[in-house]
């Protein structure tokens, strides 16, 4: 069914980079046999899933939407992919993204332009734009994305689907091609909250292959969906409804808060005073980490290698200048500069200190409140090409999602209405490892 729908609509949406048709059919046959002979089935038995192309899949092309990995076939599965197989899910294919997850519109893909299924002239958001668009277009009911500064929540908001960035450490990063290791998390993108909880259930938990994965018990997320939010205390940061946020988006969020009040919750305005520094802090730290992580793409170990080099140094240079796109080069240069001796204290070290202050802002609010609520993005989906000429306006789109990654806390985006026919996302942020409360609120609202 998934393949039928993909063949019908993907010509227009362009969400998939690689399809796994043959292997998926073999897997489906195996599952049919299992159905006939066995009694125990995985939590996602037979469920079709699409996977963002920066998560490695054994023998299935994994490009990070970069020319530098155009021919890379990994020799192992990421831990999340292994867990999906154990849960009897079926991998349908690999989904488009901004190159190495750097971007907010999927326009930085080295291969193709993914379109927003609600309006084909608009972007699906990014960097997990392929994942959100594929779910919104009904191509797959489940997808995995990754979120470093908003890349699951922002495209989920633009495409009117549900996307969760788990607590840092909740989900193993083993086999996720690293962008900024201290911020990256894999998470689920689905049509509704219940599906989202099932998918998180399957991929969560400590992993010996990722030393930053946390040894914290994984609760039963689905049983948290009680519909009961009586007495829940909501904080609404004034920085999230202020300047830059469109009037219609603000109104949708206030309407959503009314619905939650009707269900027995209360809300108050709070302040996250260091929010204004989040964007600058993020782009320094993320680019610094990226410049180190991307050093491995040297033309020797993986993927593309230039044909016309005279010596080894020349080969590195040519390969990287031909293989990486402009945004990736911009980040590598920015990060290398910020980490260079003489500038390190002024930029990287300073940014680390501000990161701590941002984290403390969240801790202070969570002493008194159960969740923080605001919009996911300042506006609904923008037009293709609208922000490509100015990186700073593109970066500004992440202003409401980035603080969550810096603090390491979990956050979800769920649809909360429409503005001119385009979906608006409501962001619900929780305490460390308290995805259950986020799901409970999101499900009650839905
Ligand atoms: N848009 C942000 C960036 O370009 C976030 C990307 C992400 O979360 N992967 O860095």
From TrEMBL:
Gene3D superfamilies: Amidase signature (AS) domain. It catalyses: L-glutamyl-tRNA(Gln) + L-glutamine + ATP + H2O = L-glutaminyl-tRNA(Gln) + L-glutamate + ADP + phosphate + H(+). One of its GO terms (biological process) is translation. SUPFAM superfamilies: Amidase signature (AS) enzymes. Keywords: ATP-binding, Ligase, Nucleotide-binding, Protein biosynthesis, Transferase. It holds the Pfam family Amidase. The keyword Ligase applies. It is an enzyme of class 6 (ligase). GO terms for molecular function: ATP binding; glutaminyl-tRNA synthase (glutamine-hydrolyzing) activity; transferase activity. Allows the formation of correctly charged Gln-tRNA(Gln) through the transamidation of misacylated Glu-tRNA(Gln) in organisms which lack glutaminyl-tRNA synthetase. The reaction takes place in the presence of glutamine and ATP through an activated gamma-phospho-Glu-tRNA(Gln). Heterotrimer of A, B and C subunits. This is Glutamyl-tRNA(Gln) amidotransferase subunit A. It comes from Anoxybacillus ayderensis. The lineage of its organism: Bacteria, Bacillati, Bacillota, Bacilli, Bacillales. The gene is gatA.
